[in-house]
Amino acid sequence: MCACVVLVVGMVAAINLAVPLLAASELHPSASALVWIVDTYVIVFACLVIPGGAAGDRFGRKGVLLAGLGLFAAGALLSAVAPDVAVLLAGRAVTGVGAAAVLPNSLAVLLHAVPAARRPATIAVWASMTGIGGVLGNVGGGAVLTAGSWRWLFAAAGPAALVLAALVARLAPVSARHDRRLDPVGAVLLVAASVALLAGIVQGPEAGWGSAVVVTGFAGAAVLFAAWTFVELRARHPLLDPRLFRIAGLRSACLGMTTVFFGMFALFYVNASFLQYAKGFGVLGTGLGIVPLTVPIIVGGRHVGLLARRIGLDATVACAFVFVGGGLLGLSTSDAATPYAGYAAWLVVTGIGVTLALPTLSGVIAGSLPPDQAGVGTGLQATTREFGSALGVAVVGTVSTAKFAEALPPDARGAHTVAEALARTGRAPDVVTAFVSGTDAGLRVAGVAVLVLGALVVGESLRSRARGEGRPGGSRVPRDDLAPVQPRPD
Questions:
Q1: What are the φ/ψ torsions at residue 38 (nearest 5 degrees)?
Q2: Which of 85, 281, 321, 457 is in Cβ range 3.0-4.6 Å of 275 for a Cys bridge?
């Protein structure tokens, strides 16, 4: 089950390493198409992970997990042989559907397979795989891509999923089914609203912010999110009940989780290209180049709970956002002449923030819901993580592309990728300088966004405490700023 998690989470990170190879490939993708190639998988994964868990409850966790691995393999192999961008995007979408079925049901199968006394430790190991998967995705993806083609990444992922499916079929136990209704309308509306929002963000630099496609994207997102809220409020078995966000701690923690992954994957998206174009790293070196980010997670993760008890949850979360935002701003000062040691130091700073944020915010989300909604809490964490990842890629890709195009030398103007610019001019140093300028601009925007949104998260928690919000029944109990609370009865 842990290998399943590493596979689907690792694919989120690994694709970023292939961006330079894709940009120079025979597909000739535009800058916006590159963002969609990364984000299609992530957004489908994010929006369907809760329905994926519900499907497992309804039709059987093992069966849905096997179907998910099959879809993941099919989507990866379709991507590997894609003759054009449209087919590649279709393959990425199918792979995302498979991942959404795999992630929640891998945990459900585990919890059914182990004795009750071992469940807390089992959950902790499974959760750690969601972080380790990103690292292994970078390292493993880098190793595979040394073959020289982006197609090898998908060609390797497909057979890996099939091997895991064979192991699941042989080893995983069958669990009881539950008569839990699905919410296909809610799922479709959430996917459509998310795609419309990303379309507005991604197409802005190329089409113009006042263009019909961008305005339609933002307006459509607003209408579809409103429709999703209306449908979910009326549904007997909603995909995700919007009323849950009345809980101040849950609301703050979900925004915080989205913000942290926004910053992380904004970094992942530009880091791979920066180390390859500006520093001259190979794809394996690039995959290993992100490892300093994980050092604080490995060394300090187990001590975060003690720190939170000493200084309070609010202070811990505030420090987390300062480190993540500050680390991104520090990374935005790097250029081709910056020693890797200096770059790695800022990665460590960012990693400290991630280390402080993830267990703290995860605990708040889990503790804000009653035990019978633990599955919703797990799905909600996955959704906020992946949605933040998709937004981070979209925003940093949009900002960096716009700045890159603006900074290009005159004979390369109009290009939106490094490969396209190099094909128009022989002035490679000027193109790399323009690329670094775009990367720095994207990281600055991401860093400022993390600091601003982090301030909103902590501010919401402080206002909640000032209002004296307590537990159900109206009792006004003192609590830490982001301490878990139970939802009030409707």
A1: -75, -45
A2: 281
> From residue 296, how far is each of 10, 204, 266, 461, 469 by CA, in Å?
19, 36, 19, 26, 34
Tokens representing residue 341 in the block: 């040691």
Q: What is the largest CA-CA distance in the chain?
A: 71
The CA-based angle 400-405-407, given to 5 degrees, is 95
Token pair 């919401």: residue: 460
* Two structure tokens written together for 375: 């599955």
Axis-axis angle for helices 31-59, 2-17 (nearest 10): 170
One DSSP character per residue, 229-269 reads HHHHHH-SS-SS-GGGGGSHHHHHHHHHHHHHHHHHHHHHH
How deeply is 234 buried, as exposed, middle or buried, from its count of CB atoms within 10 A (0-12, 13-18, 19+)?
exposed
238-242, 247-251, 336-340, 369-373: which range is least confident on average?
369-373
Q: What is the mean pLDDT of the chain?
A: 84
- The alpha-carbon radius of gyration of the chain (Å, integer) is 22
Q: What tokens appear for 253 in the block?
A: 């923690």
DSSP 187-201: HHHHHHHHHHHHHHH
Q: Which amino acid is at 239?
A: L
State phi, psi for 209 to the nearest 5 degrees.
-70, -20
Yes or no: say if 49 and 96 are a contact pair by the CB < 8 Å rule: no
- How much is the pTM? 0.82
Contact 458, 452 (CB under 8 A): no
Burial class for 466, CB neighbours closer than 10 Å (0-12, 13-18, 19+):
exposed
Alpha helices per DSSP H over 114-211: 119-145, 151-171, 184-207
Distances (CA, A) of 158 to 53, 151, 186, 290, 335: 22, 11, 30, 25, 37
Cα separation, 7 vs 10, whole angstroms: 5
299 contact partners, CB below 8 Å, separation of at least 6: none
Tokens of 400: 């960096």
User: Two tokens at 226?
Assistant: 């409103």
Please state, in angstroms and rounded to a whole number, the distance separating the CA atoms of residues 322 and 319: 5
**In 198-210, which positions are buried (b, 16+ CB within 10 angstroms) versus exposed (e)?**
bbbbbbbbbbeee
Instruction: Write down the H helix ranges in 332-427.
Output: 340-367, 374-407, 418-424
Quote the CA–CA distance of 394 and 371 in Å, as a whole number.
35
How many C-beta atoms surround the C-beta of residue 217 within 10 A?
22
Place of tokens 């923690």: 253
Q: Are 398 and 202 in contact (CB under 8 A)?
A: yes
Per DSSP, 278 falls in state: I
